[in-house]
Amino acid sequence: MSVLARVRGRLPWGETRLLALLSVALVLGAPLRTMYHLIDVVGSPTVFLVVTVVSLAAAAVLARVLRPILAIAVGAVLFGAGLVWYVTNLSTDPAVSALLRDTLALLSGRRLLQIANVRLWVISFAPAPVFLTTYFALRRWYVTATLAAGTALGFFVLTTDAGVVTTLLGVVGAFATIGFGTLDTLDDGERRTAERNAAGPGTSTDDEGIDSGRRGVLEQLAAIIVLPAILSRLPSVAGTSLSFADEEQPTVEGSIVDADESMTVQGDITLSPTVRYTVESEEARYWRVAAYDRYTGDGWVRTGNDSPYDGTRLAGPPGDSRTVRQSFEAESDIGTVPAAWKPVRYNGDPAVELTTHEGFQPVGDVAAGDSYQVVSEVPVATPRQLREAGTEYPDVVTRRYLQLPESTPDRVGETTATLTQNAQNPYETALVVERWLQNNREYSLEVERPERNVADRFLHAMDRGYCVYFATTMVTMLRTQGVPARMAVGYTPGEQVDENRWVVRGLDSHAWVEAFFPGHGWVQFDPTPSDPREAAEQARIEEARGDGVESVDTGETGNGSEFTQTETPTPPPLTEDNETTTTETPEPTNTTNETTTPFGGPQGDSGGEGSSGLTVPDLPSREETALGLVALLGTAAGLRRAGVTERVSRAIWLRHQRRTDPETDVERAFQRAMYVLQDEHRPREAGETVRTYLDAVDADADVRHLATLRERLRYGGTVSEVAADEAVEIADSVVSNR
Amino acid sequence: MTDTDTTRGQQSDSALRDATGVATQVIENVEEVIVGHHDEIEHIVTAMLGRGHILLEDVPGVGKTMLARSVAASFDGEFKRVQFTPDLLPTDVTGVNVFNQKTQEFEFRRGPIFGNVVLGDEINRAPPKTQSALLEAMEEGQVSVDGTTHSVPQPFTVIATQNTVEQNKAYDLPMAELDRFMTKLHLGYPDEGEETAMLGEVVGHHPIEELKPVATLSDLQAARDTVADVSVEEPIRAYATRLARYTREHAELGVSPRGSISLLRAAQARAVLNNREYVVPDDVQQEAPVVLPHRIRTDSSEQTAADLVTAALNTVDVE
């Protein structure tokens, strides 16, 4: 406390100003935090931090000397310079129109993380708002400061890069800044007036005003935070945009396949039994919808822009491949056009674009009944070929597919290295990781979503999850070992209803892994244990049938089908091999034995650390803590104003008298009794002595005696332990008898 | 003022009992003669115990003099009476130096002021110079005659009466001199029953002739000492101060610090009368209406000083 006081004494600012500046820090912190997160996902944040600190320092210094109009000019120059620097440093040379279109896309909800060079972008964008906000805050132009930081935050809100909590924190900071700032300006104005008039006393009432003003600001802040939270619990509001709480559990499909250009790893999830497509194909494949390259720690983002598809045949995979023709018919309205990897030709009703991962993406929606044909070239590299593929990755691939957030704990890499120490090449590494995850993590749709790095948590703390967790973790693990990998989403083959015909339901949606092998391209791996997954899917189908959901079946599916025995199709071999599938069987022999051994010890057999029962529950994040604190303070201020605290403490005060010294005891006993009398009759009036009052309310003898005891103490200066005992006893009985 | 720290606890219960006894006996004794006016008698006794002087103001014939005489007669001390008239000289009050032919020296012949209880009848009929002779004795406990000062006997109490009927022919006491009286009382007419009872008693043999002293001077002196030892704690002193300040804020001329001192002394005596060795706010409230009003000049004719004191008592926080 003394340290605090000393620090406080050294600060040249008044309390209100301090509060206002802290609020500015909060509102500026929101966009900065968002930018930090963006930087963190793609690399080291050092440069960003340096740039921020330099801007802060420059603003602090210039705030004393620079005139506001010049500061705005400096801010504009910073912004412009950043823009120019960004454009000139881009590796590609985009047209101005493309840049403009990108900007518009950003403003309409496209995530900044999808920008290829987000690091460059953030570093060039950061200085201007930091400088302007700090400068104006120090000059007491709080509204302008809020405007500068708020614009930055608003931009990130539009790009949906700022999380809900971060945004709320920023908004709270903005309100706090304006509230406290106004008070500070008033305060300052008054002080100056006072100094000018050399007026002495008489500021106490103003201080009170300021103080109650502060409390008012706090109350409003609490209202901002608490009210929506309460509202969202009201049945009439729940589920609307006001609601924080996502009451409805997302489906696997909704969270991965329908996710547009970015997806967030969800917690608990359900399976949708609705039929999506009917596929006619020469063979069962994973029907791939999309892939993601940028891992954010809690989700995935696809960077880059879609390009138009003109209907020509695309290049197939670099190595050997086999042509697979598929024909899809959408059974419900949907927004994706799945196809087996790697599609080379598309022909159908819905117009499509080409994603940066060479997948097809419909421009609009796909309506039920729409159909399309896809020709795919399925890679057919043998395990030997893959084993010998080497590590000569092209730059384009390493630049994009080895990215990991800077905040990824080192232990992810360390664990993976231990696991794969016997792997001789990337292919073996991938197999080991795939097999290990299949064997050591259970499949479950009920997952508590981890707060931080999903892969790290799944690898080190959790013992169960669903495909997204498995795939995310495997990609992360591969990337730590320098194996380019990406997250693929789509559908498993579905229910086979005829020799070349499959019915794909929402619950068949799936996430898996693609690893890159030079000379062969992207090869699929699936770390999710297939049996429990299929069991869960089958159980869901039957449940839905039992509930009489019509969309579960087409005319072909169900009991009458001759292919019922393959309702839960075995996933096709990931690396299909013309020669023989048996090569896979001996493959793990040299690895499986070793894979489990290093993990018998530190990891625990299958449960991992998480199952030991010692896991600490996830603490609330820093932002949530800060918000909670503000809410708490404001609530306290509100309760105080409403007199609740006073009433509560009064009730406690009335009922429990702790004995101290006789004087205090007698006085307090008397006050307690008087309080009860006041409650029962009327308060003692001004100018009314205790005796007169007691006469007026016709108090009983005990109370009169108590009054005499107290009178003796107060006016006669005599008191004794006995008197104190007596007094407390009387007060107790008065309180309990009322 | 009482030093509460040193005297607290030293006061013996018997001293308090004695003092209360003296006061009660005197009051009962006076009530043998005076019908009604119980409160006023109490006020007179508390003023005497509080080392103060009393001014009785009213229309003639309501028993001012009789009351004063009864009080005086209840003590065995020397009782003197001065009838103030417009031609009364100061020396008629204080006494005069007379040349003694035998001794060939001036010797001081003591005036009526040298008594333990001095009744000054109708003091507002005497010229100011004469009045001030009385007032000097009241304030200083001494008189100066031809440059020589002579102490009056102790205990010394002046009970003065004042007529309110012949205002224009009277020399009204200035505020500064009124201030010297601890209490100023109005007797008022007795109510119907009391008056009838009084008439029954006084026709024929007036009871005052049979009134016997019930207390000695030393009793009175001891009671005064006891009163002086009554403790007045800080809350009471603060209350008195608040009352005084209230009157100053709401009147042209408010209660002076001397007024506050008088109030607390009267309250001390009141405490003794109630057999208590400490002052409570009730004591202050009982004495304030007779101790304060004659020290106040209100700024409007609608509000009397008494009204203002009532307002003060109703408004000022006891604590």
UniProtKB/TrEMBL annotation, chain B:
<dbReference type="InterPro" id="IPR041628">
    <property type="entry name" value="ChlI/MoxR_AAA_lid"/>
</dbReference>
<dbReference type="Pfam" id="PF07726">
    <property type="entry name" value="AAA_3"/>
</dbReference>
<dbReference type="InterPro" id="IPR011703">
    <property type="entry name" value="ATPase_AAA-3"/>
</dbReference>
<dbReference type="InterPro" id="IPR027417">
    <property type="entry name" value="P-loop_NTPase"/>
</dbReference>
<feature type="domain" description="ChlI/MoxR AAA lid">
    <location>
        <begin position="247"/>
        <end position="302"/>
    </location>
</feature>
<dbReference type="GO" id="GO:0016887">
    <property type="term" value="F:ATP hydrolysis activity"/>
</dbReference>
<dbReference type="InterPro" id="IPR050764">
    <property type="entry name" value="CbbQ/NirQ/NorQ/GpvN"/>
</dbReference>
<dbReference type="GO" id="GO:0005524">
    <property type="term" value="F:ATP binding"/>
</dbReference>
<dbReference type="Pfam" id="PF17863">
    <property type="entry name" value="AAA_lid_2"/>
</dbReference>
<feature type="domain" description="ATPase AAA-3">
    <location>
        <begin position="53"/>
        <end position="182"/>
    </location>
</feature>
<protein>
    <submittedName>
        <fullName>MoxR family ATPase</fullName>
    </submittedName>
</protein>
